[in-house]
Structure formats: C-alpha cells, structure tokens
Design goal:
Elements (H helix, E strand, L loop, with lengths): L1 E7 L11 H12 L3 E7 L11 E4 L4 H13 L1 H9 L3 E5 H6 L3 E3 L5 E3 L6 E18 L2 E15 L7 E5 L9 E2 L1 E3 L2 E4 L5 H4 L1 H16 L11 H12 L3
Parallel strand pairs: 1-2, 1-3, 3-4, 4-12, 5-7
Antiparallel strand pairs: 5-6, 7-8, 7-9, 9-10, 11-12
The protein binds glutamine (GLN).
Glutamine (GLN) binds next to helix 4 and strand 8.
Length: 237
C-alpha cells in the first residue's frame, strides 16, 4: 500500500528543521512496510491526484509573503480536502496562513485560507522556548519561536493546552488548532521527532481514510524520541 505525502512550499516555508516532519512520517511508514511517495509542491505546482497527508512548515514573514498568492489559488481545493478528512500538519508560519489572516509588524495583511477560524497579529515580543502542551493524543513537546499572536474563534478547538510557555498568544493557555484531521501548531523541533505518538496519530488517520478501516500501527522502538522529549521538557527554555 502506498501513502502519498505532500510537502507544501518546502523551500520558502522551512525553518527550524520543520522538514524533519516529512522525514519522520516517511521513515515511520517505511519501517512498517508501507510504500511512501513524497511530492514537493512549490508555488505553481499541482497537487498529486492522490494526497493522503499534507505538511507545511514555518517561515519568516518574507517567506509567507512569497507564497500567499499561490496559497489563495489553492483555497477551495484545500478546504474541500480538509472537509474530506485529509490529514494535514501545518507549523507556525503555515499554521498562521491556515487561519483568516496574519497581520505583520509592517501592517501588511497576509490573507490565509480560513481552514481554521483564527487570526494572527504580529506583536513586539517574540515567544521563544521549549513548550509542552496536553492534547487528545497525550502531551507534546516542541520549541516555539514566533512574534505572531494567534486568537482562536469561539468555536475553533485548540490542538492543546500549554503546561508552560506561551503557545498561541501567551494569554489564554491554548496551543495550536484542530479541524477534523487538520492540525496547526507553533511547535518546531521538528514536532514529530520528539512526539512519535502524534506522528502515529496522523499516520493512523491517513491510513484509516485510505482503507476505510481502523489500522493498528505496529509499535516501534521510540526510546530515543521519548528521551529527547524528556530532556527538552527539563530545559529552562
Ligand atoms: N513570521 C511568523 C511569526 O514570527 C512565523 C514564524 C515562524 O514560522 N517560526 O509569527
């Protein structure tokens, strides 16, 4: 069985090692005997006919400005895919653009595609440091570094709650967002390398959607990943 993995804007939106999320998903599939084909989709490229998982990473405001025009052209298609249960993981800069807009420090309003009901506005401070959040999948650990503050709409579920550090805005205790199988998060690291249970949740959803049945993923030896998460949690920031 083959899983089609799309990495959106792998050049423009790729800071703090977010490409590692692609490597983690690929490898965890291969270790279990699944075939995986990765599609690097840049501005102007078509999405493949079969798309099981889409990932997108963080980027500077300048990187975000470069891709918003192309992203807007994909709005209807991506919204339809999200409704249809396609798994997506969007980090930081791409997470912001899956909301309604990102208002930059310079006052530019970068339009998002509204898969999440949220808005982001640049602030004068950066939210930086190791972060732990509780989610439906258990605790997740990562590293945040953003100046945008994200505010969820009243009916927009968060991905998790922050145990320490700042998450979406440093004030309401929320981190990230979730809409069906689409996840947004501020966690870099990359997020999936220290949180194999979250990687498997994404893979499980994608495989279930493709096969129409619940898939029991074969357990893997995750002791190094878990050790990395414990160490990150112990760091002061
Ligand atoms: N430019 C955005 C911010 O600082 C996104 C940063 C990022 O993707 N790490 O809020």
């Amino acid at each position: 069985m083959k899983v089609h993995l799309v990495h959106l804007y792998p050049v423009e939106m790729n800071i703090y090692g977010d490409t590692g999320n692609r490597l983690v998903l690929e490898q965890r599939l291969r270790w279990r005997g699944y075939d995986v084909e990765t599609h690097l989709v840049r501005a102007g490229d078509k999405l493949p006919n079969q798309t099981d998982i889409i990932i997108g990473g963080g980027g500077q405001d300048s990187g975000q400005s470069l891709i918003v025009g192309d992203l807007a052209k994909r709005q209807a298609q991506l919204q339809a895919m999200a409704k249809d249960g396609v798994s997506m993981l969007m980090i930081c800069g791409m997470y912001q653009l899956f909301g309604h807009y990102f208002l930059t420090q310079d006052g530019a309003k970068l339009p998002g595609i509204g898969i999440f009901d949220l808005v982001t506005r640049a602030s004068n401070t950066r939210l930086i440091g190791n972060i732990t959040a509780t989610t439906d999948f258990g605790a997740i650990v990562g590293y945040e570094n953003h100046s945008g503050l994200t505010w969820l709409g009243p009916n927009q579920p968060a991905l998790g709650k922050t145990l320490r550090a700042q998450g979406n805005n440093g004030q309401d205790g929320t981190e990230g967002a979730r809409q069906i199988n689409v996840f947004g998060s501020y966690l870099h690291g990359p997020i999936l390398s220290k949180n194999p249970h979250f990687a498997d949740a994404i893979l499980g959803q994608a495989l279930a959607r493709q096969t129409g049945k619940t898939i029991e993923l074969e357990p893997l030896d995750d002791h190094l990943e878990k050790e990395a998460a414990i160490r990150a949690q112990k760091r002061p920031r």
